[in-house]
Each structure stands twice: as structure tokens, then as C-alpha cells.
Design goal:
Number of helices of chain A: 2
Order of helices and strands of chain A: EHEEHEEEE
Strand order of the largest sheet of chain A: 1-2-3-5-6-7-4
Radius of gyration of chain B: 15 Å
CATH superfamily of chain B: Hotdog Thioesterase
CATH architecture of chain B: Roll
Helix content of chain B: 10-25%
Largest sheet of chain B: 9 strands, antiparallel
Distance between the termini of chain B: 28 Å
Number of strands of chain A: 7
Low-confidence stretches of chain A: none
Oligomer: heterodimer
Number of domains of chain B: 1
Structural class of chain B: alpha+beta
Mean pLDDT of chain B: 91
CATH topology of chain B: Thiol Ester Dehydrase, Chain A
CATH class of chain B: Alpha Beta
Radius of gyration of chain A: 15 Å
Shape of chain A: globular
Mean pLDDT of chain A: 91
Distance between the termini of chain A: 44 Å
Chain lengths: 138, 148
């Protein structure tokens, strides 16, 4: 990672509650096609007893990344997860720099459709799809 | 004993081995092996900015509880989560107690299919289904998924 490169974490998004408890999680610069990118580094607290990153942590990271991406695509911040599906493609290890890449597939009036993956050094760890509800403006 | 660790009435504290589960716990359990129920008490560590239970916490509790059901059904044989599908039905908040009694839907030679309907005060708030692979039946591509 070079200083000033697109892979520099530039904004921590894990400031309160559960995000803070499992973080830190950082925003990265988006890709040209609008794909939003996030990153965390696997620490001891994120592991399971088999020596891989716990599936709950990977799903939590995907949930955080999709929530932030859905918020960015919506005028309202009143969004919530309706459905999330995750396929565990390969395991992650202690010290891995794990990146989330998430895209909005459709922004409808009341829902946002998202898809994304978690990768480490270009190896896919998890593939996810998500559905977020957009609350009507007050 | 801290207030967070105080067991729920009728439940005992579950022995957790995974560092991430210890980090988000405690988790409580009751019942016989093979038909155990699991519960968590939501606190400030588990919620988001709006005070609502975080989806990641539910996903983690689901992986833990459904994984424990798989563990019971296989006498602790090594297994990994291949996939999990989740629906978030209703929000929960700090102080709520979320419970689940996972249901093993089917076990084949190499796979297990399990489901959990999660409730707060008997009202469904979340449901999860997961597919598990037994590792002693031959590894897939060098140990896939998230080990339980």
C-alpha cells in the first residue's frame, strides 16, 4: 500500500455501538464504476477457534458495507436490512487485510438491491446479496 | 459477576471457544443436546446509531446458534458454513432478549441444512437458514468457508 494511493483507508466508519465494538472499519476510495470499497484488518478478536476469521465477522462487515452503500445511494438515512445472503467461498486468516466491494444493483422507490464480495489479495472470501428497505420520508 | 454476564432466568451461560463469540457474548443456553435453545440479551455493544440491534450481531448469533445445532447433530465433527440466508423481520433494541431453538432440516453424508426462527417475547424478529459442509468427508478446495 503506497501513501496517498486509492488503497489508503481515509475515513473510519465504525464510530458507535456494534460497528465500534467490532471495528475499526474504514472507507476506501470508490472504483470508477461506482463500486464502494471498505476495509478492515483481521485481529485476534475476529477469529474462531479453528484459526480462521469468524463467519459472523465476515457477515457483519458485509452488512456494514452494504448499509453504508445503500445510504450513499438514497436521499434518506432511514434504511434497514430486510434480507442478506452470504456464500462463504474461502477462509480468511489472522492479519488479512479484508476489503469489501459493494454495488447498488437497483435503487427503487422503497428498496435498494445490492451485491458485493469480500476479498483479500484478490482472493474471494464471501459473495453477498442484500435487500435494504427505504423508509418513506417523514 | 458483571450485569452483562448475569444468566437469563432458566438459562445457563454457554461455554464459548471462538474469540469473536467471546467478544460479542455472553450467550445463554438451555435444554438437552440436540434440542438446545439459545439466547442473548441485547446491550449497547450490539446496537447501531439509532439504538436498533445491528444486523451483523444477529448474523453472528445465527452462525453461532445454528452451528451449535450442527455440532450437536454430528457429535462435534469439524464442519464449515457454506452459505447463510437471512430475513430481518422486525427491529430489536437494547434490553431485549433474543431467543432461538434451531431446527435441523436434513442431514446427508456431507451436508447439513439448518434453520432458526429468532424471537423477542415470542414474536418473530429474524430468520436464518444455513448450509454446512462436514470436513471429515473430504475437504473442498483446501478448507472453505467459516469454521465453526
Amino acid at each position: 500500500m503506497q501513501a496517498g494511493s486509492a488503497d489508503d483507508p481515509y475515513q473510519e466508519i465504525s464510530l458507535v455501538g456494534f460497528n465500534r465494538h467490532i471495528g475499526p472499519i474504514f472507507l476506501l476510495a470508490p472504483e470508477d464504476d461506482g463500486t464502494q470499497r471498505f476495509v478492515f484488518t483481521a485481529r485476534e478478536i475476529h477469529m474462531n477457534s479453528a484459526g480462521t476469521v469468524h463467519g459472523g465477522m465476515l457477515m457483519s462487515f458485509m452488512d456494514v458495507a452494504m448499509s453504508k452503500t445503500a445510504r450513499g445511494a438514497s436521499a434518506t438515512s432511514r434504511l434497514s436490512t430486510i434480507a442478506l445472503s452470504c456464500d462463504f467461498v474461502s477462509p480468511a486468516r489472522l492479519g488479512d487485510r479484508i476489503e469489501a466491494r459493494v454495488r447498488v444493483r437497483r435503487r427503487a422507490r422503497s428498496v435498494v438491491f445490492l451485491s458485493g464480495e469480500l476479498v483479500t489479495e484478490e482472493r474471494t472470501l464471501l459473495i453477498g446479496t442484500g435487500l435494504w428497505k427505504v423508509a418513506p420520508s417523514a | 459477576m458483571s450485569d452483562l454476564a448475569r444468566p437469563l432466568t432458566g438459562f445457563a451461560s454457554m461455554a464459548l471457544a471462538d474469540p469473536f463469540e467471546i467478544h460479542i457474548g455472553p450467550v445463554f443456553e438451555k435444554g438437552a443436546r440436540g434440542s438446545r435453545s439459545f439466547a442473548i440479551r441485547i446491550d449497547e455493544r450490539h446496537v447501531n446509531r439509532g439504538g436498533v440491534l445491528h444486523g451483523g450481531m444477529l448474523a453472528t448469533f445465527a452462525d453461532l446458534a445454528l452451528g451449535a445445532a450442527v455440532f450437536d447433530a454430528t457429535d462435534g465433527a469439524p464442519s464449515v458454513t457454506l452459505a447463510m440466508q437471512m430475513q430481518f423481520l422486525k427491529s430489536a433494541r437494547a434490553g431485549d432478549i433474543v431467543q432461538v431453538q434451531p431446527l435441523l432440516l436434513r442431514r446427508t453424508r456431507a451436508f447439513l441444512f439448518v434453520r432458526g426462527d429468532f424471537t423477542v417475547e415470542d414474536e418473530a424478529i429474524f430468520t436464518a437458514m444455513s448450509t454446512w459442509k462436514l470436513l471429515d468427508q473430504g475437504h473442498i478446495d483446501g478448507d472453505s468457508g467459516s469454521n465453526s
